[in-house]
Write a structure and sequence with these properties.
The complex is a heterodimer of chains A (153) and B (401). Chain A is built from three helices and eight strands. Chain A has 153 residues and is mainly beta. In chain A, the strands form two sheets. Chain A has a five-stranded antiparallel beta sheet with strand order 6-5-4-7-8, with no helix packed on it. A three-stranded antiparallel beta sheet of chain A has the order 2-1-3. Chain A is globular. Chain B has a seven-stranded mixed beta sheet with strand order 6-12-11-7-10-9-8, with helices on both faces. Chain B has a three-stranded parallel beta sheet with strand order 2-1-3, sandwiched between helices. Chain B has a two-stranded antiparallel sheet with strand order 4-5. In chain B, helix 8 packs across helix 12 and helix 11 packs parallel to helix 12. The chains are: A mainly beta (153), B alpha/beta (401). At the A-B interface, helix 1, strand 4, helix 3, strand 5 and strand 6 of A face helix 1, helix 2, helix 5, helix 6 and helix 7 of B.
Chain lengths: 153, 401
């Protein structure tokens, strides 16, 4: 399934799409969570940037991650700012920074599914799932199923 | 000991340019990085030698721009002690000044320009240029992307409160004591916006805004202005009023910034970089601080600056605050003496960033604070700024040293 630049702009009307991040959003439309990875030294680069901060290689490839990780940061946003139109439309939202299994400190910002905020714990193993928001499938993280794959990270 | 006295020797030692084209299909950041890499290589230096960055533009938060917030992380430069964004002709002046004054030793100046969507019909039809014009800067409030919304909001601070309590096994009292201390001081400050004393119980009962952050963890919005006049010590001696003196100062950058990215841990944020930069530039120590002004846009900022200043180690503020609590006045006296936020701070005097603290420190050191004057105060330590951007550590003294 190919997704054109125009498709990405159309499906994410209120997201800042740039040359540096468009592959990430193109991946989301294909239900693939892509993080930039250095072709030369293997370092994972997030947020989406065109240069490896470790070895300065410009050869950076958006690469699918395993989807396994642990909850590093968590919060619940009950109140939005007065001028925050998008936030008011989204309502209460749980935010998590998930430390992905691929690299220490590689913490992807997302939300959760299938777990109440009160049951979330720091360092809890989680895995990628997809939920619907604004008519789109977007990534979210749920408590990891207890099989051998979930032990990664 | 790092260099502190001003010196006047500045040289240009490297230069790098990108091609000049109508459409490079690159962001401001991509263009700036290309020039930066070329200039650093031309100078024959290692990136780790760079400790100052003058980025491009005026808006710190212009995501995708070649601002210092983006450039530092994108180049993988671990720490800086001087950063600024500027443009046109002034950027060179700021850069030269920064080197001359010792706030950094090796400075990278980056400027990037792009054909804006408003500059031509074909540019206006380009969706990348349209989107950059609509959703960067003030457009953030229309942005629906969770990661893009995370930066320059309060959410990270709420999440860090929870992580701090988890990592160090402590309760919210550490944040509550900052709120109570600051309110107790505000009660004695006739120019504070909120002066009704509170207790730890009141703190815990306040409304939750972003879990686990509560209303009393957040600063009080006000309309207010602050101004200071600064001049040389030589000139100050000829003026009739009392002056206070900058003993040392530092800014502090980390490689997290542009998106408030989450890659670092507690103890690695900007307050620690700034305070470390300060203590490298003076023979005074944290024990010499009579007054302490830790930024309190959120209560957790003040906890971070307290630990970063060296009053205690990372995660140890709970014990410090308990042992430093003056039960009669409901205030902190760090290590038995240092007063904290004698104005009431952003949490209770009102939200003016670090400017209210600079003003209070000057007045206290001049002895102008009437009923709330700290007797014999000679030294004031200010730590102001975000975990992610624009932190400053400044040590002021009542006499030039």
């Amino acid at each position: 399934m190919s997704v054109s630049d125009d498709d990405v702009f159309e499906r994410f009307p209120d997201v800042l799409i740039t040359y540096d991040n468009i592959e990430h959003y193109r991946g989301l439309l294909q239900r693939r969570l892509l993080i930039n990875r250095c072709d030369d030294c293997g370092y994972w680069i997030y947020p989406h940037r065109p240069l490896c901060p470790q070895c300065w290689s410009w050869s950076v490839t958006p690469t699918e991650v395993s989807g396994h990780g642990r909850v590093y940061l968590l919060t619940r946003i009950q109140h939005t700012r007065a001028n925050d139109r998008a936030g008011q439309r989204q309502g209460t939202v749980v935010l998590v920074a998930v430390e992905l299994a691929e690299q220490p400190g590689l913490r992807y910002l997302s939300t959760v599914d299938g777990v109440a905020f009160e049951d979330l714990r720091h360092d809890m193993p989680v895995e990628l799932t997809w939920i619907e928001r604004d008519g789109l499938q977007v990534p979210a993280f749920r408590p990891a199923q207890l099989n051998e794959e979930a032990q990664v990270g | 000991m790092a260099r502190n006295p001003l010196r006047g020797q500045v040289a240009v030692v490297g230069v790098g340019s990108t091609p000049y084209l109508r459409d490079t299909r690159k962001t401001y950041l991509g263009l700036g990085l290309e020039a930066a890499v070329a200039a650093i290589k031309d100078a024959g230096i290692d990136k780790s030698e760079i400790d100052g960055i003058c980025g491009s533009g005026r808006d710190v938060f212009s995501v995708g721009d070649a601002t210092y917030l983006a450039v530092q992380g994108a180049l993988g430069i671990e720490k800086t002690t001087w950063v600024l964004n500027s443009w046109l002709g002034s950027c060179f002046v700021y850069a030269a000044q920064a080197v001359a004054t010792g706030l950094c030793d090796t400075l990278l100046l980056v400027q990037a320009y792009r054909r804006g969507a408003e500059m031509s019909q074909s540019a206006a039809a380009d969706p990348f240029r349209q989107r950059a014009a609509a959703l960067a800067g003030p457009g953030i409030w229309r942005n629906t992307d969770l990661a893009q919304r995370w930066y320059h909001n309060g959410e990270p601070y709420a999440a860090w409160m929870a992580r701090y309590m988890h990592d160090y096994g402590v309760s919210k009292d550490v944040f509550g004591r900052i709120a109570v201390n600051n309110r107790s001081h505000a009660a004695r400050n006739p120019n504070a916006a909120v002066r009704t004393p509170i207790t730890l119980e009141d703190y815990h009962a306040s409304r939750e805004i972003w879990a686990p952050m509560q209303m009393l963890d957040m600063d009080v919005p006000v309309d207010a202005g602050e101004a200071l006049i600064l001049t040389t010590a030589e000139r100050a001696r000829d003026l009739p009023g009392r002056a206070v003196y900058v003993d040392a100062m530092a800014l502090g950058g980390t490689r997290i910034g542009e998106f408030y990215e989450n890659g670092l841990g507690w103890g690695q944020f900007s307050p620690w970089r700034a305070m470390a930069g300060l203590w490298e530039r003076t023979d005074l120590t944290v024990d010499d601080a009579d007054l302490f002004y830790p930024y309190d846009g959120y209560s957790i900022n003040a906890v971070a600056f307290t630990e970063a200043a060296g009053f205690c180690g990372p995660g140890e503020a709970t014990d410090l605050f308990q042992s430093s609590w003056d039960k009669e006045q409901n205030i902190l006296r760090l290590n038995g003496r240092t007063l904290v936020a004698s104005s009431g701070g952003n949490l209770s005097q009102g939200r003016t960033g670090g400017s209210g603290y600079y003003a209070e420190a000057v007045r206290q050191l001049r002895g102008d604070c009437g009923d709330r004057q700290a007797a014999g105060a000679r030294t004031a330590l200010v730590g102001a700024g975000s975990f992610y951007h624009d932190p400053a550590a400044v040590l002021l003294t009542a006499e030039p040293r």
